[in-house]
Structures are given as C-alpha cells and as structure tokens.
Write a structure and sequence with these properties.
CATH architecture of the largest domain: Alpha-Beta Complex
Helix content: 25-40%
Number of helices: 10
Radius of gyration: 19 Å
CATH superfamily of the largest domain: Medium-chain alcohol dehydrogenases, catalytic domain
CATH topology of the largest domain: Quinone Oxidoreductase, Chain A, domain 1
Largest sheet: 7 strands, mixed
Order of helices and strands: EEEHEEEEEHHEHEHEHEHEHEHEHE
Strand content: 25-35%
Length: 310
C-alpha cells in the first residue's frame, strides 16, 4: 500500500510517499481502507521532532491520527462492525498511521461515520471533536453557567462552542477579526476580537475557561474566573500554584480515542446540532506542502488528505 512516512525527524521535505506492507490487524481490530485523513497541528509537531521528548515513536514513522473510510476486514473478536461499513476513527497515538491506504484500529476507537457529510469532512472530526468533548466534559458545564472558550474559530474551539451551547451554557469566545461573524453563527453569545480588544477586561466571573492556546492567553484567563471556577487546558499544563492563588481549579485534557463519543458526535452532526468547519481536500502526495502551509499559519478551516477514491 502507499503510505506517507518519515525516517527521521525534520522538515516537511523529509516526508516520502512509499510502498509498504499492509498493517497487521489483531482479533479486536478493524482494517480500514482510508478514504481521507485529517491533518492537525500535532502532525507537524511530531514530524519536526518538537514532541520527541514527550512522545517516543519508532522509525520509520507513519503519520496521521484521524481518518474516515470503509472497513475492509475485521478481526474474529470484532462485534458491531462488518466489512463495507463506512467509519471514522482516531487511532491511539501508539499506532496511528492514517496517511496511508489502510490502517488497523481497535474496534473501541471507531464509529459509523455521519451519513450527512463527505469522507473528507468526517476525517477531520475524530481528533478535534473528541478533544472538545473531553474539555466540555471536564468543565462539567451546567445550564446557565458561563464559559470562555479560546480559539473559537479553530477545529476544537468551534466544536466546543456548540457542545457548550447544547448544555445550555452562555458562551464567550476569542477569535481574530476575520472569524467574528462565522463564529457568532455557531451560537456563541459573545465573540471577542482579540486583535482589538482585551478579553480579560471584557469577561468576568465565568464558571469555566477552555484554553486551547496557552502562554499569555492562559495567564490572562485566571482573572476571568469566579472563585471555585475551573480552567480546562488542552495546551500547556496550568500551574497548580497559580490556580491556588486565584482560588480556582484546573484540569489538563489528554484526549483518548473513544468510539462511544464518536457515535454521539456522528448523531449530533446528522441531526444538524453540530456543524463541522469547512474542509479543504488535497491529494496525499501534497502532504509536505500542506505541512509547510500549516507551520506558516496559512491553513484556513480544516484540511484533509484524499488517500483512496471514496
């Protein structure tokens, strides 16, 4: 099968399209013929070596950690899925490998993909949707509570806004100016253009902050929380000492692949309660150029690589 791999960490040009053997699938795995693979910042962070100290991968490394496609074969212990089913998945990081024509995934990490979207759109949902779900879950939002979500125009932030609204929360969010109208259309109550306004001066006494950015944004967020509130971070870990000084709690979200969550996400998409971001699709052979664009910050919306014909 064709697959995009690296043999050592480095620049995007180190990625090579190679012919390799089909992945082994175990008794509880499904073998997915990948129609499309989602592209995420974690992909180029791993490829470049920026994550090498935190995450150890053997070489050569097959990139990609979310996909949509058709089940080609199943292990003898698999239940609930069969060859021909169209599914989407976030394989665990220890396996990964969705920049390839086939990937083997544990049956607990997949779900039938939404019926109302393309393979490309479905392929961009598993990682970001599960991250957003985990963040809102950690915040334990209740009806009427107020949450500040950073990066509301991004893949995780845009879904977190919609999930928070579905729980009956009031949502404030930060975006750049070009994304204000589009983010407001997702249901956010207060959309703050961080290029012109200070969110820390505009938002006070929120019950929760969902931080997808870290750095100075995280530091400024402490002042927005009510006593006893919670800062949920998907970026850099929050300081326990800083939280204690502010009289609030913290939670670090490490997204784990959960098929039951993907099933819920698919239902929300098909019912119109969750609107995915627009998706731009490119051939797998363009992966290096896409990584370069991502590292330059010039990708807009979500991006998928077309791997095999749908």
């Amino acid at each position: 099968m064709k697959a995009m791999r690296i043999h050592h960490y480095g620049a995007a040009r180190e990625m090579t399209l190679e012919e390799i053997a089909l992945p082994h699938y175990g008794p509880g795995d499904v073998l997915i013929r990948v129609a499309a693979s989602g592209v995420n910042p974690i992909d180029w962070k791993i490829r470049s070596g920026a994550m090498a100290q935190a995450m150890h991968f053997p070489m050569p490394l097959l990139l990609g950690w979310e996909c949509a496609g058709t089940i080609d074969a199943v292990g003898h212990m698999v239940t609930g899925f069969k060859p021909g089913d169209t599914v989407f998945a976030m394989p665990e990081f220890a396996r990964g490998g969705t920049y390839a024509e086939y990937v083997a995934v544990d049956m607990t990490q997949i779900a039938l993909m939404p019926r109302t979207v393309s393979f490309s759109v479905a392929a961009t949902l598993p990682m970001t949707a599960q991250a957003a779900w985990s963040a809102i879950e950690a915040a334990d939002l209740q009806p009427g509570q107020h949450v500040l979500i950073h990066g509301g125009a991004g893949g995780v932030g845009s879904i977190a806004i919609q999930l928070a609204k579905a729980r009956g929360a009031r949502v404030s969010t930060t975006v750049s100016g070009r994304d204000v109208d589009r983010t407001r259309a997702l249901g956010a109550d207060d959309v703050i253009d961080f290029t012109r306004l200070s969110f820390a001066e505009m938002v006070r006494n929120v019950d929760a902050v969902v931080d997808t950015i870290g750095g100075a944004t995280q530091e400024a967020s402490w002042a927005t929380l009510r006593p006893g509130g919670i800062l949920v971070t998907l970026s850099q870990p929050a300081s326990g000492q800083r939280a204690q000084q502010a009289g609030v709690r913290t939670a670090q979200v490490m997204t784990q692949p959960r098929g039951e969550v993907l099933k819920e996400i698919a239902g929300l998409v098909d019912s119109g309660q969750l609107l995915p971001l627009a998706c731009h699709t490119y051939p797998l052979s363009d992966a290096a150029g896409i990584h370069e664009s991502g590292e330059a910050g010039s990708l807009v919306g979500r991006t998928a690589l077309r791997v095999t014909p749908a």
